[in-house]
Amino acid sequence: MIKWKFIKIVSFFALTQIIFNPALFAQGLDTDFFNQIKRQTGSTTDRTVVQSPIDDAREAEYLSQLDEQSKRKINAPPSIIENDFNSRIFKQDNTDETDLEQFGYSIFNRSPSMNQIMTGSIPDDYVLGVGDDLIISFRGSKEEIISIKVDREGRLVIPSMNPIAASGLSLAEIRSVIKNNVADSLIGTEVFVSIATLRQISVLVAGEVENPSLVRVSSLSTPMELLLQVGGVKKTGTLRNIIILRGNKKITVDLYNTIEGSQADITLLRDGDRIIVPTIGPTVAISGHVIRPGIYELPSGQESIPAKDVLELAGGTVRKNGNSYTHLRYDDTGKLNFERLNLLGSLSSSEIVVVNLLENSQGGGVTLSGHVKTPGIRSVGLYNNVKELIGSVKNLMEDPYLFFSVIERTDEMTQTRNLIPFNLQKVLSGQKNIPLIEDDNVIIIGAEDIDFLRSQNVKRAILGIPYQETRLSSDGELNSLFCEPIDNLSKVIRSNSNGRFTIATRAFESERIPLQEEYNDLQEELIRREEFLEVRQNNLVDDRVPPYEEPEVEKAEVFYNCPDIYKTTKNLLTLALENVASIDGSVRYPSVYPVADNMSVNSLITVAGGLLNDADVTRIQFVENTDSIRQLNIVSDWELLDSTNLDLNTKFIQPSGTVSVNALASQFESRPILISGEIANPGSYTIKKGERLSSLINRAGGLTEQAYPYGAVFTRESVKISQRLEMEKTAERLKTAMMSAAIKSNVESDSIGGLNAMISEMAQQEFIGRVVIEADPVVLNTLPDQDIVLQGGDTLFIPARSRFVITVGDVLNPSALQFSPGKGVAEYLSESGGFNISADEDRVFIVYPNGEAKPISLASWGGNRNLSVPPGTVIVVPNDLSPYDALSLTSEIGDIFRNLAVSAASIAVLVR
Questions:
Q1: Does residue 332 sit within a domain?
Q2: For residues 656 and 634, what is the distance between their CA atoms, to the nearest angstrom?
Q3: Structure pTM?
Q4: Do residues 526 and 430 both lie within one domain?
Q5: Are residues 740 and 870 in the same domain?
Q6: The domain containing residue 159 runs over which residues?
Q7: 484-511: per-residue pLDDT in tens?
Q8: How far apart, in Å, are the Cα atoms of 121 and each of 68, 124, 229, 396, 601?
Q9: Which of 142, 299, 450, 710 is the most core-located residue (most Cβ within 10 A)?
Q10: How far is CA 824 from CA 474, 497, 698, 827, 898, in A?
């Protein structure tokens, strides 16, 4: 029982603390829970504020309007005052600074919350009025908690006490009155008074505000809150002379004090107050190197302001020393004058202060940058040469390139920044050192930066192939793949390089054709992209324009596309490529490598990845191209270096020199040969140079009993390429002839389009590169001159003996017919049902199993219709091309069809 009483006492004490001090718990208690506590204590005066759905809708609509208004203000153009000040400043001071804005108005670029929960304690000087709700708690001889509202007559009617005139009294005063009354009437009782609910007041807001109106707010509201609820002050309205009319009393509010937090007393509004916002007063502006540039309104009633006060409004200067102050003011004639500002003087309305730096430079420093672990500025007094600045090789990042670094230095006569190359390897080894002067920038290059010199973009630029990337992409955004150093290099070379890049050009010349083809493909891709975008832009549908998808670019490709060191150091890429030595042949990374002063041949081989296993170290070719040789216009002879008898560290190469590492002569072809089909041991075989087919067949175990060597299919890559090129040339000739004939014959465009499509399709047919050979070992043994010499990459297929003769083309029933000795071509065609009506009977030909083709005449007299054919033969009946006779292209097209048939149809029968 005692325990239960103790719990009730503790609970009651905690409950009274919550009710008496709601500010302590407001952040953690829900309003509904708070009201529930009040009800549980027996308070019968608790009220529930009910708001209709119509009121909710109106409030939501008003908040939405304020939100839209805030967005419009953020995106609004400059005011007339801002335009006036900015027009004077930026005509004379062309910097990257943003436009000046009127100070203070940005605080209204937000929407207010209409139902803010009041937290914190109510100040003691709060003046009570009709509608305020108080919580009064008695402790002692009387234990009671009551909620009482100030009635319409301004009284508090407390049970067992006389009514108290509360309206107009402060919270501190009403507490004192209630405590005195309790002390007189309730002996041994303490009383605690707090405010539960604040009354609502009506305030009129008018003048230069966005939404002048009568506003209902709580009695603790300030002018700033009221202005937020009406959308804020316009930029034509004052922030420093806002007037509150309270009966016959006039109160002035300066929002600058509120914004900066310098106002000691906050003005609370009362019921019936009127807030009037007059037009803006005199203004001055300050720009340049100050913390808060802007346009500031002068205090109310002032026509001028001390210069030091303007600087204080702007937060002071960015730098304490080294500033110049320019005073922009109009004279009596309206002429704008630029004068030196008197810091002890003052500024009048519409005048401007511009703060500039006397000198934006630094002295006594040198910079270390690039491929180092600790880049930054050092004192030239402490580090007056390159060796001291870098310290040791440990200060370099992993994998540096030591043979070409640069010093960026200002020329005293011209004040231009120049690049001076130096050999860092010699500096670190103590062979050489370079003194530094003030403002030098020592740039160290890494191996990745050197790798960039053999990238596709650099090679294309060196070879004069246009750079295809643009600074901006098609959507107007910056192109992440654009590399300005490459763009500049390309422009220099295409304008006039004067032999500056001869070594690099010679080193990359062997790649000109594939690089040019790649560039052409890129151009076609760009054209296709432009066509697609044009169609999409115009909202058109065109089946002739295929859909286009942007190619995905890997992040690594974007990074490698343009190293930062070339972007931050102007002309570094050009300088590096002007001072290169080249190395080619049997090394891992043949390319060009920049050289400052000179480097050993062994070092050049090392940075090129070292020698390959097949390198001939006894015949390394070396040629120098020193300054004296170039001046005398002498053609240098190649020098052969034998590294077994010569230390390559003692042989030095300068820019424009070349090293060529020969490979040992190999007796084997670089690529194997694939042999398959009816062979004892089919597979891939490495062959010696000059090896013949009979040797390969013998090594593969010979032919099987089912082998049909007469039908051997032998292919060669070089023949395939030749066939492809010849077909492309033929297609071009056909298109030219077609257009010429079409013009002369006035042929319809539909016919031309169909023929053109057919020619394009034929030109895209794949060839296998078949070569007619003799593959019978018996024949090769007796006729060695027919034994073909093999090449790397060749393929040989030996089919099984065929038992069929194939008829293809324009016959009624193309089929595989049983071979019968002595049966002629006409008989096989008859067994296939004879010719279709569209067949060209005059162009029938046969393809023998070995790939040879022969035309057949089916005429009764003088023909070879009864020609006996071996098994595996293909009889081809082409289509009649007479529909194209109007263009005189029948013979050309027929030849193409025949070539395709020989290439493909003859193989089909051999694998049946």
A1: no
A2: 14
A3: 0.57
A4: no
A5: yes
A6: 2-41+134-193
A7: 999 999 999 888 767 789 899 999 988 8
A8: 34, 9, 23, 63, 85
A9: 450
A10: 67, 71, 36, 5, 21
For residues 204 and 276, the answer to whether their CB atoms sit within 8 Å is no
Q: Which of 138, 140, 139, 136 lies closest to 150 in space, CA to CA?
A: 136
For residues 380 and 498, membership in a common domain is answered with no
Tell me the H-state helices in 538-683: 555-560, 564-568, 572-578, 601-607, 627-632
pLDDT band at 863 (very low <50, low <70, confident <90, very high): low
Task: Report percent pLDDT > 70 for the chain.
Answer: 79
Distances (CA, A) of 571 to 419, 479, 565, 590, 796: 8, 21, 11, 24, 56
Distance CA 706, CA 692 (A): 23
- Using alpha carbons, list the distances in angstroms from residue 134 to 41, 128, 172, 173, 801: 15, 10, 13, 14, 115
Q: Are 599 and 425 in contact (CB under 8 A)?
A: yes
Task: Give the integer Cα–Cα distance in Å for 621 and 345.
Answer: 81
315: left (phi over 0), alpha (psi -120 to 50) or beta: left
Statement to judge: residues 523 and 605 lie in one domain? no
Strand 804-809 versus strand 874-877 pairing type: parallel
Q: Please report whether residue 873 resides in a domain.
A: yes
Identify any residues that bridge with 472 across adjacent strands, giving them in sequence order. 478
* Closest to 459 measured CA to CA, from 506, 520, 522, 391: 506
CB pairs under 8 A, 24+ apart, for 854-861? 856/825, 858/825, 858/826, 858/829
User: What would the pLDDT profile of 178-209 be if each residue is shown by its tens digit?
Assistant: 898 888 888 888 889 988 888 888 999 999 99
Please name the residues in contact with 618: beta carbons below 8 A apart, sequence gap of 6 or more: 642, 643, 644
Q: What single-letter DSSP state applies at residue 648?
A: G
Q: How far apart are the first and last CA of the chain?
A: 107
Query: Which residues share a beta bridge with 197?
Result: 133
CA distance 625 to 595: 13
Q: Please count the other Cβ atoms lying within 10 Å of the Cβ belonging to residue 898.
A: 17
**Given the DSSP bridges, would you call strands 365-370 and 441-444 parallel, antiparallel or unpaired?**
parallel
Q: Does residue 626 form part of some domain?
A: yes
User: Closest Cα to residue 293, out of 108, 103, 82?
Assistant: 103
Which pLDDT score, from 0 to 100, does residue 907 have? 46
Among 145, 173, 193, where does a domain finish? 193
CA pair distance 164, 174, nearest whole angstrom: 9
DSSP letters spanning 744-810: HHT--HHHHHHHHHHHHHHHTPPP--EE-----HHHHHH-GGGSPBP-TT-EEEEPBPP-EEEEEES
Helix (H, G, I), strand (E, B) or coil at 906: helix
